[in-house]
Amino acid sequence: MTSYSVLPSGPRPTVIATWPGEWSDHSVKVTTLADTDQASELAHVLTRLSEGAWDAAAWLDTYSAIEAGLTTLIDQLRAPADKISEIHLPEGGYRHTDQWSFTDVKGPASGRTARVRERDDPRPAAHDRRRTVL
Fold it and tell me: For residue 75, how far is the Cα from the chain centroid?
C-alpha cells in the first residue's frame, strides 16, 4: 500500500508517495500545489484510495476495475482541464462490490478528488499544464 503525505518545500507544498520496500521505505514526489490545504486533501484522498484498492484488489477480485479507474484519474490529473469528472468504477462481474472495501474505493475516485482539482492553482490557464505531475 502507498501512503501519501505533504512535504512543505518552500512556498509550495509537495505531495509525496511512500511505500514499503524490502529493506527500506521508498518515496517519490507526486506533485507540487499552490495551497497547503489542497495538498493535504489530495494526500488524504490518494491514501484512502490506495488503502481501499489494496484491500479490494486482494480480497474482492476487483483489481481490473480499480486499475481502470486509477488510469482514468491519472489521465484527468495530467490533463490541463480545470475539473476532474466523476469516475465510475464498473461493478458488473466482480465479487463483493457491495462490501465496504469496494465502496471506499469508489468514494475517493469520484467526488473528493474532483473538488481538489477545482480549487487548484488560481493562476491563468496558460500555467495550468505545470500544475499536476501525477
Answer: 11
Domain residue ranges of the chain, discontinuous segments joined by +: 34-120
- Angle formed by the axes of helices 63-78 and 36-59, nearest 10°: 160
Q: Which triple of cell numbers denotes residue 106?
A: 469508489
Length of the chain in terms of residues written? 134
Q: How far apart are CA 75 and CA 73, in angstroms?
A: 5
| Cβ contacts of 131 within 8 Å, gap of 6 or more | 31, 33, 120, 121
End-to-end C-alpha distance for the chain, whole angstroms: 17
* pLDDT in single tens digits along all 134 residues of the chain: 789 999 998 889 999 999 988 999 999 998 888 889 888 988 888 888 777 777 666 666 666 777 777 777 777 777 777 776 777 666 666 666 666 656 666 665 555 444 454 444 443 333 333 333 33
What's the predicted TM-score (pTM) here? 0.59
